[in-house]
Specification:
The complex is a heterodimer of chains A (237) and B (280).
Chain A (H helix, E strand, L loop, with lengths): L1 H9 L10 H14 L1 H33 L1 H15 L7 H8 L3 H25 L3 H9 L4 H12 L1 H26 L4 H10 L3 H34 L4
Helix pairs in contact in A: 2-11, 3-4, 3-6, 3-9, 3-10, 4-6, 5-6, 6-9, 7-8, 9-10, 9-11, 10-11
Chain B lengths: L2 E12 L3 E13 L4 E5 L6 H9 L6 E6 L2 E2 L7 E4 L11 H11 L4 H14 L15 H13 L5 E5 L7 H18 L2 E6 L2 H7 L2 E6 L4 E7 L11 H26 L23
Parallel strand pairs in B: 3-8, 3-9, 6-7, 7-8
Antiparallel strand pairs in B: 1-2, 1-4, 4-5, 9-10
The chains are: A mainly alpha (237), B alpha/beta (280).
């Protein structure tokens, strides 16, 4: 930060192009106080939450179908692996044509970004449930939905959590890209307006916010979730 | 007869040979409250037989019936205790034991009381709230036994339940299993490759031949047992069974090591040109 401050002060570039650390901090704080940044965070996170929830449910359901039925595995399973390699922002032009340049289009690519990964992870999670657990449960009289709810789902929880973690990273990136291109409000839109107004201090402030939120989600939420499962199962002491 | 097995045949698909016959015309009868063991070399289909009775696998031919009712699919009247305890790591010991009871639509309170009583019977009253990873191998297997017994099954199917335990733990569990068996009067079908284990515990010992698996001979042993000390009678029986099994062991070894291998005459493989040490 000291280096940043000094290089910025010594640099030939004007302030609006390469703002100093203190300048960025004051923009960040005033943005937080005025509510401008907070509203953007709220808008972005609610989009993320909706898209992510849909993706998780879709992922679980389709993952189940792929695991359960060979024919679905051969068709959809293959398609998913292919689709997974397409960055979800690539879908944006299509989404704009289908839904218009609005929240719906952004939601679409956010959901898409997380869905493929969730399907892949749910499938492999279900597939890796030890046969022993399945036999035990069946021997004790479990079957049908009860079997799914009490054995298959909980036994694949560790894999599902790592799936959620990767899926979240994909949808977070898709969200920023989508908002940058066409949102009325949100962190990505704030970046875009910062660029348009030539306010690099705002742009860098938003970048800091994005980084902070990303770190919190990844290291605090998912890592803790993972650790607590590992502790309970005795995988890690 | 309580458990009746008639003309069971079972084959599995095999990569090179097409199909491999695992069980060939198995006929077996077990009386209510009897403790029966099946011994045989590994790969003889004894575990498959148990899974068929449990309803976890389907036979190609033949009929299995309990109390006159034909077995179709798995059910909690025939609970299996596996070689590995297979406790669910996401549930506490108590929740593991009540797992099957909830399926019986039993009230939560009643199920928990029953589970706790059963855990006390296997001497784990103090570990009700522990998670499986906090238990030793022997304790896990105790929980697995409690989880099976609490269902009050008609028949307890045990698939080498003590094979992964150390000798001391196994001895203690042998004794406890016999105690439990006498107390609950449950019918037990016990699969093992350990002849002594079979002799020490059971009233009836079925020796399996291998490839394909079929019943070679049945032994009856009705003297009282404590599950720990072999008596003269059981030692004698152990010898007889071992003699029966030797032939089967040889068959397996020949298949694995080649036809010139002989378990009885030359355990060290020899060069045909001379005896070992003849060139000294």
């Amino acid at each position: 930060m000291a280096i940043w401050e000094v290089t910025s002060k010594l640099s030939d570039l004007p302030d609006f192009m390469f703002p100093s650390f203190t300048q960025v901090m004051s923009t960040l704080i005033s943005g937080l106080i005025s509510g401008q940044i907070l509203i953007a965070i709220g808008a972005s996170l609610s989009r993320l939450l909706i898209g992510f929830t849909i993706a998780s449910i879709l992922g679980l359901v389709l993952g189940y179908l792929i695991w359960r039925y060979k024919i679905v595995e051969d068709t959809l399973g293959f398609l998913v692996t292919a689709l997974q390699s397409i960055p979800s922002i690539v879908w944006f032009p299509l989404a704009i044509i289908w839904f218009g340049l609005n929240d719906f289009a952004i939601l679409f690519i956010v959901t898409l970004g997380a869905t493929w990964t969730m399907i892949v992870n749910a499938t492999s999670g279900f597939k890796n449930v030890p046969v022993l657990y399945q036999r035990v449960a069946k021997s004790l009289g479990s079957s049908g939905f009860h079997f799914l709810r009490t054995v298959i789902l909980p036994a694949s929880v560790p894999q599902l959590i790592s799936g959620l973690r990767i899926a979240w990273a994909f949808s977070w990136r898709a969200l920023m890209a989508g908002e940058l291109l066409g949102a009325s409000v949100g962190l990505g839109q704030l970046l875009e307006s910062g660029r348009a107004l030539g306010q690099m201090d705002l742009v860098i402030s938003v970048m800091i916010i994005i980084g902070v939120i990303g770190t919190i989600m990844d290291n605090v939420l998912f890592l803790r979730l993972e650790r607590s499962v590992e502790r309970k199962w005795g995988i890690r002491a | 007869m309580y458990l009746e097995i008639e003309g069971i045949e079972k084959s599995f698909p095999h990569k090179e040979k097409g199909t491999v016959k695992v069980l060939d015309n198995i006929n077996l009868e077990i009386e209510k409250g009897q403790f029966v063991s099946i011994v045989g070399p590994s790969g003889c289909g004894k575990s498959t037989m148990l899974y068929l009775i449990a309803g976890l696998e389907k036979a190609d031919q033949g009929k299995i019936s309990i109390n006159g009712k034909e077995v179709k699919g798995s059910g909690s009247d025939r609970v299996v205790v596996f070689q590995e305890a297979g406790l669910f790591p996401w549930l506490t010991v108590l929740d593991n034991v009540t797992y099957g009871l909830h399926l019986k639509k039993m009230s939560k309170k009643e199920a928990e009381q029953k589970a706790i009583d059963m855990l006390k019977m296997v001497h784990l009253g103090n570990y009700v709230d522990a998670y499986p990873h906090q238990l030793s191998g022997g304790m896990k297997q105790r929980v697995a036994i409690a989880r099976a017994l609490v269902m009050e099954p008609d028949i307890l199917l045990m698939d080498e339940p003590f094979a992964a335990l150390d000798e001391q733990t196994r001895m203690v569990l042998h004794k406890e299993l016999l105690d439990i068996w006498r107390k609950t009067k449950v019918t037990v079908l016990f699969i093992t490759h350990n002849i002594r284990e079979a002799v020490l515990l059971s009233q009836k010992i079925v020796v399996f031949a291998t490839r394909p698996g079929k019943i070679k001979k049945t032994f009856i042993s009705n003297d009282s047992k404590d599950g720990v000390m072999p008596s003269d009678v059981t030692l004698q029986l152990e010898k007889q069974i071992l003699a029966e099994l030797q032939e089967e062991i040889e068959k397996v070894l020949k298949e694995e090591m080649g036809d010139d291998y002989s378990f009885k005459t030359n355990s060290v493989s020899r060069d045909t040109s001379g005896d070992m040490g003849s060139h000294i």
